[in-house]
Amino acid sequence: MRIPTEGETIQIHSYKHNGFIHRIWDETTVLKGTKSLVIGGNDRTIVTESDGRTWVTREPAICYFHSDHWFNIIGMIREDGIYYYCNLGSPFVYDSEALKYIDYDLDIKVFPDMTYTLLDEDEYEYHRKQMGYPDVIDHILKRNVDNLVRWIRQRKGPFSPDFIDVWYERYLTYRS
């Protein structure tokens, strides 16, 4: 697996369990890239949905991907604070085309006061049956929901008080 280099602009490709593309983020600047970790930043990037529709992100965001965790975390910087959107999905891989992962529907939205909501449980159950998620995947994902909630409560990793600010400042150095 190739390692993305700091300052490089990459795409992020989200797939579904059946191998079909789910969503593509057009441009993300790599702020840190190792075999196991990619931290990126983007702002007003084009997002293409599986049906071809496009939209543009509204605010700056710092993205956190780790090869040991079945989730990724996006910290969105808004006027009233940092909101987090956490996708339960496979650990990432990176190749010459993009950073890639499988999206498994479950999401956790975290508000600036660190309260959170688990989203899309119905969608997860529907796709689990439709695409035949193996029981082992179901167990891994449910364990990782628990791990993610623990990170939120402990203010660990991207949820730590200065994480998003530090990486956003780094991102701004590439924008000037």
TrEMBL record:
Which residues does the annotation say bind Mg(2+) 2? D105, D107, D120, E123
Per the UniProt record, which EC number(s) apply here?
Answer: 3.6.1.15, 3.6.1.6
- One GO molecular-function entry: ribonucleoside triphosphate phosphatase activity
The alphabetized UniProt keywords are: Hydrolase, Magnesium, Metal-binding
Lineage top rank: taxon: Bacteria
| The DUF402 domain, residue ranges | 18-156
Q: What class of enzyme is it?
A: hydrolase
Its needed co-factors are: Mg(2+)
Active-site residues, as the UniProt record annotates them: R23
Can you tell me which residues bind Mg(2+) 1?
N87, D103, D107
Q: What is the reaction catalyzed? A: a ribonucleoside 5'-diphosphate + H2O = a ribonucleoside 5'-phosphate + phosphate + H(+); a ribonucleoside 5'-triphosphate + H2O = a ribonucleoside 5'-diphosphate + phosphate + H(+)
**InterPro entries in UniProt:** DUF402, FomD-like_sf, Ntdp-like, SA1684
Q: Which Pfam families match?
A: DUF402
Q: Which family does it belong to?
A: Belongs to the Ntdp family.
PANTHER family noted in UniProt:
PTHR39159, UPF0374 PROTEIN YGAC
Role summary? Has nucleoside phosphatase activity towards nucleoside triphosphates and nucleoside diphosphates.
* The name this protein goes by in its record: Nucleoside triphosphate/diphosphate phosphatase
Could you read off the lineage of the organism from its UniProt record? Bacteria, Bacillati, Bacillota, Bacilli, Bacillales
